[in-house]
């Protein structure tokens, strides 16, 4: 399977890459300090060193700016998550590489900040959660699900519901380190500890889904009401 290509950051007419970077860096600092509701376009423009009018020329609202900020983060970070997919490695090595990258991603300051904002503001601004889900977790689930589906066709894995299995894998990756980081609790997050968690997650996952390893995997439950 070929390596995951970096999605293209949407290009806005009339905005240079340097100007976009300037605005996004300012937005990141203001959103991190004030959250979504507490941030204002005036603050972001001032921090980014652009006029408020210039900012509104490119982004007609705070919501569109935040959506663009999340999308840019996803475009930059997602390819790093799946570097091992494009390499000729065993399923164990591939999944261990993804797990390691996922733990590093979810415990990075940027990811912790985004998670904090989206969770705290979701009830008031549900579109933030939807945007975050679509450009980040949903894409990650889809990429891993496609890989699991391909390995199932090859007879290496037995994954009746690849999307559910991908979500389970990512949930396991958030064990111990990520959850404690999100709650700002002390936790050992050095590379050795991350590698240990990644190996454990991978072995547990393959013990369920690798052909000949575990008990039969239940078929996906179908919602008859749909």
TrEMBL record:
GO terms for molecular function: DNA-binding transcription factor activity; transcription cis-regulatory region binding. The keyword DNA-binding applies. Residues 17-77 form the HTH tetR-type domain. InterPro entries: Homeodomain-like_sf, HTH-type_TetR-like_transc_reg, HTH_TetR, Tet_transcr_reg_TetR-rel_C_sf, TetR_C_Proteobacteria. Keywords: DNA-binding, Transcription, Transcription regulation. Pfam families: TetR_C_7, TetR_N. It comes from the Bacteria. Gene3D superfamilies: Homeodomain-like, Tetracycline Repressor, domain 2. Residues 40-59 bind DNA. This is TetR/AcrR family transcriptional regulator.
